[in-house]
Amino acid sequence: MEKTYHILVVDDHKDIRDLLQRFLCQHGLRVSTAADGEQLYQRMEKEHFDLLILDLMLPGKDGITLCREIRSQSHIPIIMLTALGEDIDRIIGLEVGADDYVPKPFNPRELLARIKSVLRRYFAIPNVDEQLSTSPIHYEFAHWHLNATTRELKDPSDTLVTLTSTEFTLLVAFLSHPHVVLSRDDLLRLVQGRGADVYDRAIDTLISRLRKKIEQDPKQPKLIKTIWGGGYQFSCEVSHG
């Protein structure tokens, strides 16, 4: 990574904060730490961060609550850490806007790989073929507008709709391939990157999240249609430039 990215590690265990700070700094990242939500917000008011590593179990406001609050006002990538490893906890983390999820105990090298993967998705727009360097800057669909440079999505009433980095990447993939059936494998490679620990339910959760933001009736979607046995299809005309 050419840029020195600034990471904020939020965990109430000092040994974990110190371990991650040392390890990530050794691998070219700039790292700050916070012990709870209060310190997190104090840090974010004073400094710019490129990614948050957020523990699920925190004193005061827990990680789920903090993730939901931050996502309501910011696109910043978020990786959740937790000692809980059940699928339901992963799904909850994704539903409130986390970009990835790493259960404790974890190998710091795995976390580093996840960080790099999330940063690549956020700062360089991939597609299903893992390249979208020739993608247009602006997309128009069903009176919606997406600026791929600023990552701003506006609905037909010109209201700004916040997207997570994975939601943004997923939407760009659909807009770049209108009327094309994209399999779950295609979409999983897109949102998780090569070699990541992915599972089928993750993509369904992400699709559900995106539908809630762009569909008039998410239960009867007209834009992102489910193709039984095939995957998903963006069934709308798209203009771009």
TrEMBL record:
InterPro entries: CheY-like_superfamily (IPR011006), OmpR/PhoB-type_DNA-bd (IPR001867), Sig_transdc_resp-reg_C-effctor (IPR016032), Sig_transdc_resp-reg_receiver (IPR001789), WalR-like (IPR039420), WH-like_DNA-bd_sf (IPR036388)
Location of the OmpR/PhoB-type domain: 136-236
Keyword terms: DNA-binding, Phosphoprotein, Transcription, Transcription regulation, Two-component regulatory system
PROSITE patterns: OMPR_PHOB (PS51755), RESPONSE_REGULATORY (PS50110)
Domain named Response regulatory: residues: 6-119
DNA-binding span(s): 136-236
SUPFAM superfamilies, alphabetized: C-terminal effector domain of the bipartite response regulators, CheY-like
SMART domains: REC, Trans_reg_C
Post-translational modification 4-aspartylphosphate, affected residues: D55
The keyword Ribosomal protein is annotated on this UniProt entry: no
Name of the protein this chain belongs to: Response regulator
Organism, scientific name: Celerinatantimonas yamalensis
